[in-house]
Design brief:
Layout lengths: L3 H9 L9 H11 L28 H8 L10 H21 L6 E10 L6 H9 L6 E12 L2 E11 L5 H9 L5 E11 L1
Antiparallel strand pairs: 1-3, 1-4, 2-3
Protein name: Translation elongation factor EF1B beta/delta subunit guanine nucleotide exchange domain-containing protein
Family: Belongs to the EF-1-beta/EF-1-delta family.
InterPro entries: eEF-1beta-like_sf, EF1B_bsu/dsu, EF1B_bsu/dsu_GNE, Transl_elong_EF1B/ribsomal_bS6, Transl_elong_EF1B_B/D_CS
Length: 192
C-alpha cells in the first residue's frame, strides 16, 4: 500500500526509471496509478531527506544546505572517515547479528606445521594437532607437502569462528607439542 513517503520520493523523481531498473520502474508505475488519491494516502509527508535508513547523511538539497556552511568540520585527509567506516562496518555486522543470531564471522585457515626433521613421526604430529579442541574450531583435510631433502610439512585446513578462536591461540597450542613441531605458519587466510 503506498504512503506519503512514496509520494515524497515520487515527486523528487523527474522521469520514469530506465527499463533495466525493472523494480524501480514497477514502483513508479504503481505510484502513478494513485495520482488522484495522493492526498488521502496514509502517513505524514516529510522532507525527502528524512526517509531512508537511520544514521545516513542527508544528501538531498534540504540537507546539503545545512552542511555547506560548516566547511571547517571537514577532514580533507579522510582519517576520521576511515575510523567511521570501520565503526559503521562493525555496527552493521552487529545489527545483522542481532537480527540473525545464526550469523557468525568465520575464517578459513590453511596452516603449515613444520616438523623438526625428516625422522619426525608425521602421523603422530597430525594426531597431536587434531587433539587440540576448541569451541568454534573445525578441522578439515590435511596433506603432507615435500619441503626438501626428504622433509615434509603438514598442511591442515581449519575453519574457525573469529569471536572464539584466534590464530595466535592456535599457534600457541600447536607449538606446545615441542617434541614434534618446530614451527607453525598461516599459509592462507580468508573470511567466509
Amino acid at each position: 500500500v503506498p504512503s506519503k513517503a512514496d509520494v515524497a520520493v515520487f515527486e523528487a523523481v523527474f522521469h520514469p526509471p530506465l527499463a533495466n531498473l525493472c523494480h524501480a520502474l514497477r514502483w513508479y508505475s504503481h505510484i502513478t496509478s494513485y495520482e488522484k488519491e495522493k492526498a488521502s494516502l496514509s502517513g505524514v509527508k516529510k522532507a525527502l531527506g528524512k526517509y531512508g535508513p537511520a544514521n545516513v547523511a542527508d544528501t538531498t538539497e534540504s540537507g546539503a544546505t545545512d552542511s555547506k556552511d560548516n566547511d571547517d568540520d571537514i577532514d580533507h585527509f579522510g582519517s576520521e572517515e576511515e575510523d567511521e567506516s570501520e565503526e559503521a562496518k562493525s555496527a552493521q555486522y552487529e545489527s545483522k547479528k542481532a537480527i540473525n543470531p545464526d550469523l557468525v564471522a568465520k575464517s578459513s585457515n590453511l596452516l603449515d606445521v613444520k616438523p623438526w626433521d625428516g625422522e619426525t613421526d608425521l602421523a603422530k604430529l597430525e594426531e597431536c594437532i587434531r587433539s587440540v579442541q576448541e569451541d568454534g574450531l573445525v578441522r578439515a583435510s590435511s596433506k603432507l607437502v615435500l619441503v626438501g631433502y626428504g622433509i615434509k610439512k603438514l598442511q591442515i585446513q581449519c575453519i574457525v569462528e573469529d569471536d572464539k578462536v584466534g590464530t595466535n591461540m592456535l599457534e600457541e597450542q600447536i607449538t606446545a607439542f615441542v617434541k614434534y613441531v618446530q614451527s607453525m605458519d598461516v599459509a592462507a587466510f580468508s573470511k567466509i
